[in-house]
Each structure stands twice: as structure tokens, then as C-alpha cells.
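FORM 7B: Structural annotation worksheet

SECTION A. Query
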Amino acid sequence: MQFADLMRNMSGRFDRQQLQERAQLQFNNLYQPAGQSLVEWANTVSAVGAEAFRGLPEGYAQSQIVHRFGHGSADKDAGYQVSLSRPVSLDEAIERMRWHAHHKNAIFGSRCASNTRLHAQPQKELKTKLVQQLWRKTKARNSSVRQVFRPTPVKAW
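SECTION B. Predicted structure
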């Protein structure tokens, strides 16, 4: 038995590399966690993408990584806009994401509900706050409507 054959057999038996299909599933389910910066998010997507698209053409892998970066970002509006602009590289996508956040903050300021900077509050916490605000407004509106339109009893004939 040749040394190369022996190494191939040992590598096949004891190699710790995960299956490419598993890495692709993991890649497709990546989302930016709350509190993670853009650069950390880009590094995460790149690392998992490199494993998921091992052995495939570089251009294809790069385009998939850029798409996942936009689609999985915590700021959905910025991710959507970046994906529509079709950036060629991950660095270009990061720059466009920062540019979008800058303009969004300049136009809407801190009153924009989805303006959570690029670190983003947890979505559940944000939804809870919005639901509470809506509930208060609806409750106040309903109580004023009840005072104006009190139902009058209808007598049967």
C-alpha cells in the first residue's frame, strides 16, 4: 500500500471536516444576532460561506456570501436595499450598508422605529415596545369613542 493511499484512507476515516451539505444548510440559516457589528457579521458569513462553497467557483461563492450578508442582516431595510444594489464584493456591501444606515439616521433620526443602528435591538424587544405603544393608543381612542357613542337601549315592539 502506497503512502498516499494510506493517507487518503486515514483522512476519510478520521477527518473532522463537516459535510458540505451541512455547511450549506447552516449558511442558508445564518442571521445577524443582536449586538453583532457589521464587520463581525461579514466575517461570520465569510467563514461559513467558505466552508459551504468549498470547491465551487470563487465568483459563485462570493455572490452567495454577499447575498446572505444582505438577506440575513439585522436591519432588514438596509439589507433589502443593499441586495437590490447588487454589490460585487463583501466590502462594497458593507460600505453600502453603512451608507444606508447613515442616510436613514440623517433623514429619520432616532424616531424611526427600525433605526436600531447596525447593532439592532432584539426584534422581539422592538416588537413588544411597538405593540405596547399601539395598545395604549388604541385603548385611549376606544375609551374616547365609548364616551361619545354610548349605546341607547332599544325597546322591543
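SECTION C. Observations
The CA atoms of residues 8 and 14 lie 10 Å apart. The chain has one domain: 3-119.

SECTION D. Sign-off
Analyst initials: ____
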